[in-house]
């Protein structure tokens, strides 16, 4: 009998290895093949699975009464998918980014488990024999944030959640997810427009995955992935594969939210590298024909507005907090700071967000305290990230209050006595969108 947080659960928690079709797989040219460990060891599973689904609809109640793409009369709402790349004349978009994270079973310290993004910092390329001690304490979750090419106004970011089922095969899932994010960060940072194919969110995912497949150190593993590109014109493009995801919050409402990609309950889409020996054993015993590649990622584009808050996160967040929980945390932080103001005409965004988003000039990608006085660096975006992760951490350890994962268990297995949260690694990257006047270029 398996247990979780001291609570008995009769569902088997063994990972399932399944044979995958390898047509056009970037790993075909090397022994590791793109076959996946089909489920996470931290999620309950059963030999009799429910019917497979590729997409789960988000109820309108979780979107503040709006489905993505629905346009109400209020002019502050936009379609969640648009091809318009042009922004308002005389303005530019600035993306203020911070992340927070904590590994499963570790105590959470909001002053230590935080990352402040500085677009002018150099991205360190992946190194052979990576020191695990240099990784953030995010467990099997990994993330990256990088400027896109030489333009500090455009940003690439993403979250990868290592598949825990690989641990039963003696593989550390964190090796795959962290290397994957390292390669995507390097690719984004070195991107040069006009050289080769355009770098889309899906293409960035593809290049990172191909690099992992050809990395001799990564013998096996897998992860889900959500990757985003933020343009200087206020457009967010996202490629989402699996059950990590994102949400866009706007003036006390959920503007849009991603839907998880799953083959069945507890079986998210995922990218994988599998040793040849494991491939042969899986083929001998048979298995479901599954194939998850970057081309399977769902791609959406979203027009952002001044004052929007975007959250990218692993399933450690989504399994423990509902969208309305996240909205409540963000709304309280924005209102308390004054970034969202209540006026006679309703909630409005402060015209200037720089007093809330400014980062100490001594900050860098490694440090979380300033060099003058050792005070923790606090920005509005880091406060939101820390409060979201802290709330998810608390909910994951609450054995009485049912979260999203518990409700999913009851949906598929109504007789199972699962209650409370789901302990897992948690990682969240928060973007606070600011629209500012573009500098006037003097005519020579």
From TrEMBL:
<dbReference type="GO" id="GO:0046872">
    <property type="term" value="F:metal ion binding"/>
</dbReference>
<feature type="region of interest" description="Disordered">
    <location>
        <begin position="36"/>
        <end position="89"/>
    </location>
</feature>
<protein>
    <recommendedName>
        <fullName>Protein phosphatase</fullName>
        <ecNumber>3.1.3.16</ecNumber>
    </recommendedName>
</protein>
<comment type="similarity">
    <text>Belongs to the PP2C family.</text>
</comment>
<dbReference type="InterPro" id="IPR039123">
    <property type="entry name" value="PPTC7"/>
</dbReference>
<keyword id="KW-0460">Magnesium</keyword>
<feature type="domain" description="PPM-type phosphatase">
    <location>
        <begin position="119"/>
        <end position="433"/>
    </location>
</feature>
<keyword id="KW-0378">Hydrolase</keyword>
<dbReference type="Pfam" id="PF13672">
    <property type="entry name" value="PP2C_2"/>
</dbReference>
<keyword id="KW-0464">Manganese</keyword>
<keyword id="KW-0479">Metal-binding</keyword>
<dbReference type="InterPro" id="IPR036457">
    <property type="entry name" value="PPM-type-like_dom_sf"/>
</dbReference>
<keyword id="KW-0904">Protein phosphatase</keyword>
<dbReference type="InterPro" id="IPR001932">
    <property type="entry name" value="PPM-type_phosphatase-like_dom"/>
</dbReference>
<feature type="compositionally biased region" description="Low complexity">
    <location>
        <begin position="63"/>
        <end position="73"/>
    </location>
</feature>
<dbReference type="GO" id="GO:0004722">
    <property type="term" value="F:protein serine/threonine phosphatase activity"/>
</dbReference>
<feature type="compositionally biased region" description="Polar residues">
    <location>
        <begin position="77"/>
        <end position="89"/>
    </location>
</feature>
